[in-house]
UniProtKB/TrEMBL annotation:
Keywords: DNA-binding, Repressor. This is TetR family transcriptional regulator. Residues 11-71 form the HTH tetR-type domain. GO terms for molecular function: DNA binding. Gene3D superfamilies: Tetracycline Repressor, domain 2 (1.10.357.10). Pfam families: TetR_C_19 (PF17924), TetR_N (PF00440). Residues 34-53 bind DNA. Coiled coil: none annotated. PROSITE patterns: HTH_TETR_2. SUPFAM superfamilies: Homeodomain-like.
Length: 201
């Protein structure tokens, strides 16, 4: 995470640095990203970068964490919009991700096509990453359980893990195969329908 000096920057300077970081990670994945490009775009000395971040991985995961925070807010919004239907929320969230534009889309594409365990774990916190059990209970309370065949919180947690895994794999497939929005949505909705219906006669 950023050093304290990063948070001491003025809002304008902080945003300029973050925009430079985002631009670089939208251009190439983490493994190919260049600190030289970041400092050139931000117009700061290379040494200044290390006053704010430990390394490029530190900057990348800060950007990812900020994205996850926005995702968590979006998840709550979509749950409310769809009356607590966890399946419809997932479909709406999937559609939002695959229709991102410009830098946001490029950042996500690089993110998903170069997925590591650490990145998968962090992005998965969009749904499962509540810091306390109380926060998870609050999230769970927004879900309409009357439409779910689950009997306790443990089963709900595993349901979320399953849905999150399906979501992440579907996003990766969308980007890797360069699927159209229509094709990607059709495939994802089919998978969600199979989960809703159950697979055993």
């Amino acid at each position: 995470m950023p050093k304290i000096t990063f948070y001491n920057l003025s809002i304008e300077k902080r945003e300029k640095l973050i925009n430079a970081v985002k631009q670089e990670f939208s251009r190439v994945p983490l493994s190919q990203a260049s600190i030289s490009n970041i400092v050139k775009s931000a117009r700061i000395p290379r040494g200044s970068f290390y006053q704010y971040f430990e390394d490029k991985e530190d900057a990348f995961f800060y950007l990812l964490e900020e994205r996850v925070k926005r995702n968590q807010s979006e998840v709550y919004f979509l749950l409310n919009k769809h009356n607590g239907d966890i399946f419809e929320m997932m479909i709406a969230f999937f559609e939002k991700v695959i229709t991102e534009q410009d830098e946001n889309r490029n950042f996500l594409k690089n993110l998903f096509l170069n997925m590591t365990y650490e990145v998968e774990h962090e992005f998965g916190r969009s749904f499962n990453g509540y810091e306390t059990n109380q926060q998870f209970i609050q999230f769970e309370s927004k879900v309409n359980k009357e439409i779910l065949h689950i009997s306790n919180q443990e089963e709900f947690k595993y349901l979320m893990k399953i849905l999150t895994s399906v979501l992440l794999r579907s996003i990766i497939e969308t980007f890797s195969k360069d699927q159209s929005k229509e094709e990607a949505l059709r495939n994802f909705k089919l998978e969600i329908t199979l989960l809703k219906r159950g697979l055993k006669k």
